[in-house]
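TASK: fixed-backbone design
INPUT:
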């Protein structure tokens, strides 16, 4: 057993021996030791991106800690399941660093895990070569991921690219950025578990965090990948502000039939980190799981689950 395994199992063993309240008060004590400016920074971040619960320092509302304590207590075995499914020690250290950040507010391990060798999503140790891919970018924003893909693998890396985004203005920007590339299909649609209509909820701080809502004034078309794309898909990236689970359910035929490489954001809720790999495993057990971390060292975001078919040829 190496040191990553030892520290992970020691941490989960400690957590398992406490009830939910004890976990909460342990986490709250750690939070209270943080520098006031860092606390305020976290509070501002939570007010801008309300995915994980509330933090109101003035009124001593620490909902996000309560929710994290609940998940650690009730879903500890899910974290252990994921740890044991991960295929390399880099991935296992990422998972340890995230849980240790939740429980002990540890910044050091998150910083050590931050990926600096390769660009977001495209780890060349795991995916050194792409050729003739049908790449579906769900949450294409301004086309930055597509450009990273082409920079990493060249024009020969893809046969066709589908770009989906819910914000019309950013779809227009994407078309401009990618104007010099051929075989790009642009679809201003929400990708969910079924077709229909939904509404656009604009984030006041960043359009990259725009998301769908069941109510609103700006109606947008929704679809599923199984309904919208007939041809085989070889790689899917998803970063859609909490709709990833729905989108995966709406792509289950492609995932089970085509065995596409999957690059999925798993940080938009307190449960995504384990629920998304469990969902993919339920659909198709022929995947190897990896985690890569591209966020900061204070609060874990930008965590990507990479699922590669077991027969993937490097």
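OUTPUT:
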């Amino acid at each position: 057993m190496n040191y990553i395994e030892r520290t992970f199992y020691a941490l989960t063993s400690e957590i398992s021996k406490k009830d939910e309240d004890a976990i909460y008060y342990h986490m709250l004590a750690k939070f209270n030791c943080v520098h006031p400016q860092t606390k305020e920074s976290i509070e501002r971040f939570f007010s801008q991106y309300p995915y994980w619960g509330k933090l109101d320092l003035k009124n001593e509302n620490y909902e996000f800690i309560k929710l994290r304590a609940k998940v650690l207590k009730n879903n500890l075995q899910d974290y252990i399941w994921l740890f044991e499914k991960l295929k390399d020690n880099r991935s296992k250290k990422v998972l340890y660093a995230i849980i240790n950040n939740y429980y002990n507010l540890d910044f050091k391990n998150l910083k050590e895990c931050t990926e600096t060798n390769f660009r977001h999503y495209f780890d060349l140790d795991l995916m050194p070569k792409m050729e003739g891919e049908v790449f579906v970018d769900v949450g294409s924003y301004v086309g930055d991921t597509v450009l990273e893909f082409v920079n990493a693998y060249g024009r020969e890396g893809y046969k066709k690219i589908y770009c989906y985004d819910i914000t019309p203005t950013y779809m227009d920007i994407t078309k401009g950025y990618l104007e010099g590339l051929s075989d790009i299909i642009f679809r201003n649609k929400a990708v969910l578990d079924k077709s229909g209509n939904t509404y656009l909820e604009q984030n006041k701080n960043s359009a990259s965090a725009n998301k769908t809502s069941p109510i609103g004034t700006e109606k947008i078309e929704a679809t599923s990948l199984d309904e919208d794309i007939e041809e085989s898909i070889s790689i899917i990236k998803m970063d859609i502000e909490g709709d990833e689970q729905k989108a995966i359910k709406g792509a289950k035929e492609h995932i089970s039939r085509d065995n596409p490489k999957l690059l999925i954001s798993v940080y938009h809720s307190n449960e995504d980190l384990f629920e998304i790999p469990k969902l993919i495993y339920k659909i198709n057990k022929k995947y190897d799981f990896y985690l890569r971390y591209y966020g900061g060292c204070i609060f874990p975001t930008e965590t990507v689950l990479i699922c590669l078919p077991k027969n993937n040829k490097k």
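COMMENT: The radius of gyration is 20 Å.
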